[in-house]
């Protein structure tokens, strides 16, 4: 079956970055901003990590946003609900400083726009651990705009996380396509390549490869954006 829909990961795929460096920078900025509200940095970061892990294991009953804040308030109490606007303010102000540890690849935006011009559906299948405002910013850092995508997953509109099969199936359902029509493009073997298990084709982008399980990547179509574009020419003709 020919590919009609392409799903792209964001961090390390459309937006080049070293994941560990980005996370450390993000947490440092967040802790610095929220210290103004009396949050002790180490406890804050531990709580954010804990909420993130809960989102990754979400069973689909509630949104990731609801799961995150339930955990966070379990750590800091119901009063922390009053601080949600300050978290939102962080993403409007200090979060943009994390751009300095990200790279840029013009071929990423070119590939997305070429697909759109050819009538292909394009979705952003970034692990939905961030709020919409943060995801929009990271899209812009990659040289794109949110309207370039028919869907981009955030913690507000998602009830699952990678590498859950339900995460990938929910995207296909939202886009009204079958998994067999979809190609998932990502740089993380353990998070992105499991899309194959629901019937999607996969392409492993190796420019910022993450392979914590030391999986043999030769089982996947892989390479940089040049190789991806060559692969797209093949799978879109089938």
């Amino acid at each position: 079956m020919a590919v009609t829909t392409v799903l792209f990961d964001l961090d390390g795929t459309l937006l080049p970055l070293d994941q560990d460096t980005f996370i450390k920078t993000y947490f440092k900025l967040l802790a610095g901003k929220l210290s103004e509200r009396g949050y002790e940095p180490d406890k804050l970061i531990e709580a954010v990590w804990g909420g993130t892990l809960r989102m990754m294991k979400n069973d689909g009953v509630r949104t990731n946003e609801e799961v995150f804040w339930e955990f966070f308030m379990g750590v800091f109490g119901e009063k922390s609900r009053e601080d949600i606007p300050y978290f939102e303010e962080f993403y409007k102000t200090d979060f943009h400083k994390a751009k300095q540890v990200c790279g840029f690849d013009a071929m990423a935006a070119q590939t997305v726009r070429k697909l759109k011009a050819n009538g292909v559906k394009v979705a952003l299948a970034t692990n939905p651990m961030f709020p919409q405002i943060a995801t929009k910013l990271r899209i812009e850092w990659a040289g794109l705009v949110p309207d370039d995508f028919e869907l981009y997953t955030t913690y507000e509109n998602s009830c699952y996380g990678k590498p859950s099969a339900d995460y990938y199936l929910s995207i296909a359902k939202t886009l009204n396509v079958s998994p067999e029509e979809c190609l998932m493009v990502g740089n993380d073997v353990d998070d992105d390549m499991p899309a194959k298990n629901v019937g999607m084709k996969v392409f492993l982008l190796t420019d910022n490869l993450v392979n914590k399980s030391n999986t043999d990547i030769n089982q996947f179509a892989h390479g940089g954006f040049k190789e991806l574009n060559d692969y797209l020419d093949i799978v879109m003709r089938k």
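Residues 5-17+103-235 form a domain with the Rossmann fold fold (CATH 3.40.50.1000). The CA atoms of residues 190 and 211 lie 7 Å apart.
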